[in-house]
Write a structure and sequence with these properties.
This protein is of the alpha/beta class. Helices cover 41% and strands 18% of the residues. The protein is built from 14 helices and 14 strands. The chain has an eight-stranded parallel β-sheet with strand order 1-8-2-7-6-3-5-4, sandwiched between helices. The protein starts with a strand and ends with a strand. The relative contact order is 0.14. Bound molecules: adenosine monophosphate. The site of adenosine monophosphate has 15 residues, from helix 3.
Amino acid sequence: AVVTLEVDQYVPTHKFADFEVNDLLKQNIINKGYETPSPIQDQTIPLGLEGKDVIGIANTGTGKTAAFALPVLHKLMNNQHSKALIIAPTRELAQQIEEEFRSIAKGSGLSGVLLIGGTPMGPQLRDLRSKPRVVIGTPGRIKDHLERGTLHLNTFDQVVLDEVDRMLDMGFLPDVRFILGELKEDRQSFFFSATMDAPVRTLIQTFSKDPVMVSVKTGDTSDNVDQNVVHYTSKEDKIEKLHDVLLKDEVEKVIIFDETQRNVERLMQELVSRGFATDAIHGGKSQGQRQRALKRFKETEIDILVATDVAARGIDVKDITHVINYAIPQTYEDYTHRVGRAGRAGKTGHALTFIVK
Ligand code: AMP
């Protein structure tokens, strides 16, 4: 079965208060300020509560996290034997999911163990000894724990794969197949992906049972992002044009995408030397450094973040006003992912792409 939603004209059929979920979870959701479910939430939550396997075709910014968090947590609270594994392609996304789970599950006694790479094993091993019922992590580290025998998944009966397309792009298919093979046979699965090309479809078909697909992808990019280009003539002109853009009043909080770790680092240093409060995230930085940069950006200690595509994946910072493509994205999909950072939660954002004249 396939349900396709036209986001622009979508009228939600529920309020959060109407869902048949545990009162504590409902109250926490409402306390977060969520009142009306987003389209993906409106459709996915009831299916999830019914116990269906769900495939959600949705970008970041559509509210997909709560769309799976609510049914997963409801089942965990209602069934003491239930356990859930959530797999995300990047550390940052895994952390954001853990935060969302923590706020929705507040007061329930349920807490998630975060298994991500780039951080020490010690605390993870300690957390795992407490027999957690929610495990959230990236494929590499989850597999690592399975192979060491420090994690057993054969009693896990709920699984969520977030940003499946991204996971496969990053080469995680073998790890993901391995992990899914370790789970309890009789289980409920949630798959979320921005796109549904052949490899994604094959994976989902292999590992789901009679799924319902909910698709909220409408246009190619978010309708509430105003997209424009900046022309430049030379390298010198390019940095000056960027400088001019960054000085504008309406440019409050910015992500700038550049190509390689080296370019990102260089551009960051150039902007710092020009007096802009800037930090950078890329794969060459330690997990701690990335987390610190992200935190400074979230808390507006810095208002400019220079990033590579992979490092920026899944980042959810609410008040980004501008996405700047200082380097043109490699693929149209990368463009869509980048531009999706701006204009979240109904606000209009701006995307500027630098193009040589
Ligand atoms: P996500 O697509 O899960 O990354 O969510 C995008 C953003 O929207 C996050 O900052 C959420 O906190 C927020 N959000 C999700 N669902 C709702 C809702 N129903 N009402 C208001 N904000 C929401």
